[in-house]
User: Which sequence fits this backbone?
């Protein structure tokens, strides 16, 4: 891990103490779950969630752990002004934000 990565994680450590956080991944449950209720909560969208056409809100942050499809998903989230994390060790440095 680079020093700049460590500094970044240190800078966001405990930025939401005592708050709830919800991790939203893709799956069939999204079709019947009332996730719109989470619009005012701190949420992290995972992988292909941002490609879901009827997502009722933009998550607070987004993370991708799958290398497959990275370019397609990255295009969908690049314009968003939310924190984005790419967990793949194969992701190039320029996609880290």
Assistant:
């Amino acid at each position: 891990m680079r020093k700049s990565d460590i500094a970044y994680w240190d800078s966001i450590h405990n930025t939401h103490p005592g708050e709830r956080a919800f991790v939203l991944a893709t799956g069939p449950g999204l079709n019947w779950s009332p996730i719109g209720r989470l619009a005012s909560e701190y949420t992290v969208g995972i992988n292909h969630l941002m490609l879901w056409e009827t997502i009722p809100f933009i998550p607070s942050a987004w993370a991708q752990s799958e290398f497959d499809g990275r370019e397609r998903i990255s295009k969908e989230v690049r314009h968003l002004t939310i924190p984005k994390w790419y967990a793949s060790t194969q992701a190039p440095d320029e996609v880290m934000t």
